């Protein structure tokens, strides 16, 4: 195979960021909110799971060995979403994004032909998010990772127009990866906070971008949605129906919502070959990229096996395996 296998959904753990905010009052409140949203059973599992997998997110040699075992040639590495810290004030947020961007770049620099990085942008401070994207690009990163919303702001908020404009102008990548879910205690058992909450957050965030006209105003935006875009791609027919029949739904975007799926990118991490085929049918084989959520337990240890299980046409499999990412990341 001459085209490399590229995993666009892989994480790095940044202990220096955790140490920076550990003793701040806002961090304690954020941990309390996280505990309430996830519930005690999930927290009891999460701690040991992260500790066991942390070496693969901090030690480049262990990461590369794991990639080799999976048959992955290249990873697009993004900080663990636990590092967002959208509760932080402007001064703390600047320290967080600078430290995260520089540490991620240093991690990837240890294997520059195999690891490419994304930084962070503090969505709670939209003007600062623009500076964070510039800083990430200055470090040699390919863009930034963002969550599905910030406190009091959806991605449709006009305050983000400068961020979208800069990302479009520079060709920077935006990786949409939710952290937490605003359904709160309704999802506090059986790990519903993740299994239901993450796909819901993706669908809500993407719908804000579509229905508000962000993708009309910024057609060159290069955005990858984690977890296959959540529920939206397989249920977008309902959005199209609302757009065509209701004045309140159709006022913000120029075209049927389903058409915008072909302007976005999606990772392949949907855990069901039927859903992966449906995603490719909705968005196009040229818009889906291999993703594993390395190395978390809600990811896959065998991303190529999961891709092959979908029994795609050879050309589509090759595109998802690496061809699309090679083009998107502009790899030589």
Structure description:
51% of the residues lie in helices and 12% in strands. The protein is α/β, with parallel strands linked by helices and 332 residues long. The chain has a six-stranded parallel β-sheet with strand order 4-5-8-9-10-11. Strands 1-2-3 form a three-stranded parallel β-sheet. The longest helix has 20 residues, at 90-109. The protein is globular.
What brief labels describe this structure?
332 residues; six-stranded parallel β-sheet; three-stranded parallel β-sheet; 15 helices
Mean pLDDT: 96
What sort of overall outline do the alpha carbons produce when their principal axes are compared? globular
Helix and strand run? EHHHHEHEEHEEEHEHHHEHHEHEHH
Main sheet attributes: strand count, strand direction, barrel closure: 6 strands, parallel
Helix tally equals 15
User: Using only CA atoms, what is the Rg?
Assistant: 19 Å
Instruction: Estimate the helix proportion, in percent.
Output: 40-55%
Strand order of the largest sheet: 4-5-8-9-10-11
What distance lies between the first and last C-alpha atoms, to the nearest angstrom?
15 Å
Number of strands: 11
Uncertain segments: none
β-strand percent reads 5-15%
Q: What is the structure about, briefly put?
A:
By secondary structure, this protein is an alpha/beta fold. It contains 15 helices and 11 strands.
């Amino acid at each position: 195979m001459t085209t490399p296998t590229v995993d666009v959904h892989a994480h790095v753990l940044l202990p220096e960021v955790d140490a920076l905010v550990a003793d701040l009052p806002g961090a304690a409140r954020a941990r309390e909110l996280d505990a309430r949203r996830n519930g005690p059973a999930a927290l009891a599992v999460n701690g040991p799971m992260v500790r066991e997998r942390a070496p693969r997110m901090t030690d480049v040699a262990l990461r590369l060995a794991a990639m080799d075992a999976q048959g992955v040639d290249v990873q697009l590495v993004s900080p663990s979403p636990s590092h967002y810290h959208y509760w932080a004030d402007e001064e703390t947020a600047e320290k967080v994004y600078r430290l995260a961007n520089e540490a991620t770049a240093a991690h990837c620099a240890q294997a520059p032909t195999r690891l490419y990085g994304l930084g962070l942008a503090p969505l709670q401070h939209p003007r600062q998010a623009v500076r964070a994207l510039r800083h990430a690009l200055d470090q040699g990163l390919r863009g930034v990772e963002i969550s599905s919303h910030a406190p009091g702001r959806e991605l449709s908020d006009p305050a983000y127009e400068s961020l979208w404009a800069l990302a479009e102008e520079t060709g920077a990548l935006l990786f949409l990866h939710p952290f937490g879910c605003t359904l709160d205690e309704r999802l506090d058992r059986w790990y519903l906070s993740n299994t239901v909450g993450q796909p819901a957050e993706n669908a809500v965030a993407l719908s804000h971008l579509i229905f508000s006209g962000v993708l009309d105003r910024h057609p060159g935006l290069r955005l990858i949605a984690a977890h296959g875009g959540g529920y939206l791609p397989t249920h977008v027919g309902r959005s199209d129906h609302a757009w065509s029949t209701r004045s309140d739904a159709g006022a913000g975007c120029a075209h049927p919502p389903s058409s915008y799926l072909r302007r976005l990118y999606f990772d392949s991490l949907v855990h069901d070959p039927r859903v992966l085929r449906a995603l490719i049918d909705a968005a196009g084989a040229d818009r889906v990229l291999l993703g594993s959520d390395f190395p978390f337990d809600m990811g896959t240890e065998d991303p190529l096996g999961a891709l092959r299980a979908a029994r795609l046409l050879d050309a589509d499999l090759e595109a998802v395996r690496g061809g699309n990412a090679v083009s998107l990341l502009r790899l030589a």
